[in-house]
Amino acid sequence: MGSDTVQDTTDNTTHNADTMTDQTHHSQTGEEERHFEFRLEDDADPEEVEHIYGYVPGGYHPVALGDRLGDGGRFRVVHKLGFGGYATVWLCHDGVGKKWRAVKIMAAKASTPECADLRALDLFAGMDPDVLAANHIQLALDTFWLDGPNGRHLCFVLPLLGPKLTHVFQYYGHIPELIKDICFRLVEALEFIHSRGLCHGDFRTDNILFRLADGVDEWDEDAMMELLEQPRLVRVERVDGSERGDAEPGVPAYLVERADIVYGEGACSSDIAVIDFGVSYRNMQHPAEKGTGIPLPYAAPEEVFEQGQLLGFPTDIWALGVTIAKLRCGFAPFADEEYDDFLAGLGKMECVMGPIPNPLRTVWKEWNGVFVNCQDENGETRDDRSWEDEAVFATVNAKEQARVEQSRRREGRPGNYLHYRMHHFGMMSIDQGEADTMAAQAASDPRRLPPYDWRRPPLEYGEKIQYTMDKAEIDQMFNLFSMMFRWNPEQRATLDQIANHEWFGGRSRRRPEAPLPLSQLATSNNSKRARSPSPGGPGKKPKCNAEEEINRQDDTTAAARREDGTGGLGLGGPAAAASYSYVARIMTGVRVGAGWMTKKLTWCVGTIGKVVSGIFECLRWRPWRLSRRAAK
User: Fold this and answer.
1) Better pLDDT: 190 or 28
2) Is 365 exposed, middle or buried (0-12, 13-18, 19+ CB in 10 A)?
3) By CB neighbour count within 10 A (0-12 exposed, 13-18 middle, 19+ buried), where does 470 fall?
4) How far is CA 438 from CA 5, 176, 256, 453, in A?
5) Is 521 inside a domain boundary?
6) d(Cα 265, Cα 619) in Å, to the nearest integer?
7) What is the C-alpha to C-alpha distance for residues 344 and 326, in angstroms, rounded to an integer?
8) Cβ atoms of 317 and 235 closer than 8 Å
9) Does 109 show up as a binding residue in the annotation?
10) Per the UniProt record, which residue ranges are transmembrane (predicted)?
11) How many CB atoms lie within 10 A of CB 46?
């Protein structure tokens, strides 16, 4: 239907969404035997409901439609929005605020101070929710506790959000300005996150949702059910077929299939909300693990090679680049999302960026026993094992790729793998008539996702649009990607460079600047000077050149990124995090004001000194002048 689960934030609570269910199943023999007494009815779709084995002490809270949650039964349960290994999410109507909300009920065992959602609230403590929303960040609005037969559960109240960005290209890839708007909001969101001294750590389409259009969260229940369709229930039965008694309150009588809000309903705005800060960390204060566990398609080389000490802002920049490629080009450049192939992913990285450099090459060699490039020119395995020698050892497929690139260039085609692939068409999920109508609607109302008839029968292959970007845009995007995808994290483009890249068409000039941490103020000022009008004429922006831009700012960027994100002031904790941007602005103002006052004071003192000196000179020579006048 063109979208994923509406509020499937629970799948993003952890990278191993089913871990809790699996751990419960294998570690609690008594409960395991108890749960084999229950099963779902025969025609149930296991992909649309949570695992029944999760309803154990320490697991899910059993919820029925019509239940009331929160203080005074404020939130009435109407539908299910999503589930994961650690939580279920329910559509509820807020009897006080009179709005639709998503209530996320954590499993009892996951309801701890280390819960990712609580951690996210700490990271942005003290921030006005409206400020977060304006910067495309979404956190819980409120929390409460719920006691039930399976334990005590922490609950989070969130606004009702739309679908993930996962399938945007299939429906909106033919509207480049809409995609650019969405991608620019991603840059703004990441810029705001980094301005707090934080790295997201899991920046990808699954963790970015569309917001609903204005007023949708205030619809009446009939309108909301028309949008989501009526809940479909899956009956929970005893394995032996006997009637259920009242002795199993921890197991619900039925499960509810999750609801979908699809792109085509016309209920979504083009604004976005970044969620899931469960693996976020402060810049240069690396995670305890060697990486964050971000899926391979979005993983930077330092993630792939488990070089945790290299993680930081540039690691998010890499993930941003992959996300932009997914939204605009319809593919992840380095790995397939369904078939994560470590070897193929590295091979594609080499196709784009050249051979793996040291120290990553050394790590690769140790991991894989030097089995790469062990073939000769004819594809036969080398008998002399000379390929084990460091001088012969190169990379996964660098020699073959060089041959392919040369062949492509001889044919007048782009040599680089990524540049070449962007010239291929992408298969969309709409026909030409729908595409034309949607493009016109997007032009007239760019703040709303254009609707389409998602209820119609699926299109045949020949009816679908085969969309290809024009050559000028491909060249711009390749230039942008060449700045973002670099083996060395310190050589990747900054967010300021990305926001001002020509592919975004001047969007950066139409936005307020995000506050920066103290450690990045110098880098920001350098970037602003770089955007001054070029000698070619007033207001003319020089053409972006990836190599020149990167090399010009390497020194300042590297220096800034060696900071700990607090400007060396030792700031830390939620309170300090909440005051980052304000401290930066105040300190900048103080420095600028002090500098201005010092210059003015120096000028005034100098002027006064000259005046006083002149007066003394006049007094000194006055008698001499009078004596001369008397003599005359």
Assistant:
1) 190
2) middle
3) exposed
4) 23, 12, 33, 11
5) no
6) 90
7) 18
8) no
9) yes
10) none
11) 10
pLDDT at 196 over 50: yes
CB within 8 A of 301, min separation 6: which ones?
307, 318, 349, 356, 360, 487
Contact between 260 and 2 (Cβ < 8 Å): no
- DSSP assignment string, 530-597: HTSPPTTSTTPPPPP-HHHHHHHHHHHHHHHHTS-SSTTS---HHHHHHTHHHHHHHHHHHHHHHHHH
Instruction: Assess whether pLDDT exceeds 80 at residue 542.
Output: no
pLDDT at residue 511 above 50? Answer: yes
Residues 101 and 94: beta-carbon distance below 8 Å: yes
Neighbours of 401 (CB within 10 A): 21
**Dihedral (C-alpha) 514, 518, 522, 525: value to the nearest 10 degrees?**
30
344, 333 Cβ separation under 8 angstroms:
no
Cα 15 off chain centre by: 15
DSSP letters for 171-188: HHTT-HHHHHHHHHHHHH
pLDDT level of residue 484 (50, 70, 90 thresholds) = very high
67 burial level (CB within 10 Å; 0-12, 13-18, 19+): middle
Residue 471: strand, helix, or coil: helix
What is the per-residue burial (b if ≥16 Cβ within 10 Å, else e) of 86-121? bbbbbbbbbeeeeebbbbbbbbbbbbeeebbbbebb
Domain harbouring 263, CATH code: 3.30.200.20
SS3 137: strand
Segment (H or E) for 604:
helix 580-631
pLDDT for 123 equals 86
Main-chain dihedrals φ then ψ at residue 161, nearest 5 degrees: -115, 170
**Average pLDDT rounded to a whole number, residues 370-385:** 56
Tell me which residue has tokens 């977060």: 132
- Quickly state the pLDDT bin for 284 (edges 50, 70, 90): confident
Q: How is 62-122 classified by DSSP, letter by letter?
A: P--TT-EESGGG-EEEEEEEEE-SSEEEEEEEETTT-SEEEEEEE-GGG-STT-HHHHHHH
* DSSP track, 267-299: -EEEEEEE---TT-EETTS--SSSS----GGG-
**Per-residue pLDDT tens digits for 22-74:** 333 333 434 444 445 888 887 788 889 999 989 999 999 999 999 999 999 99
Concatenate the DSSP letters of all residues of 492-508 into one string.
Answer: SPPHHHHHTSGGGTTGG
Tell me which DSSP letter residue 356 carries. P
Q: Which of 102, 142, 120 is nearest to 5 (CA)?
A: 102
Question: Would you say residue 51 lies in a domain?
Answer: yes
Q: Identify the residue whose tokens are 């993983």.
A: 299
Q: How is the beta sheet containing 233-238 ordered, strand by strand?
A: 38-40, 233-238, 254-256
75 touches 199 (CB < 8 A)? no
* Residue among 90, 136, 86, 88 at smallest CA distance from 112: 86
**615 occurs within a structural domain:** no
Q: Which domain, by its residues, includes 61?
A: 9-282
In the structure, what pLDDT confidence band is assigned to residue 347 with cuts at 50, 70 and 90?
A: confident
Asked if the peptide bond before residue 451 counts as cis, ω within 30 degrees of 0, the response is: no
| Burial letters 339-350, b for 16+ CB under 10 A, else e | eeeeebbbbbbb
472 phi/psi in degrees, rounded to 5: -60, -45
CA distance 395 to 356: 6
Q: Cα-Cα-Cα-Cα dihedral of 40, 41, 46, 49, to 10°? A: -70
Number of independent structural domains in the chain = 1
89 lies in some domain: yes
Q: What angle do CA 438, 442, 447 make, to 5 degrees?
A: 135
d(CA 277, CA 290): 17
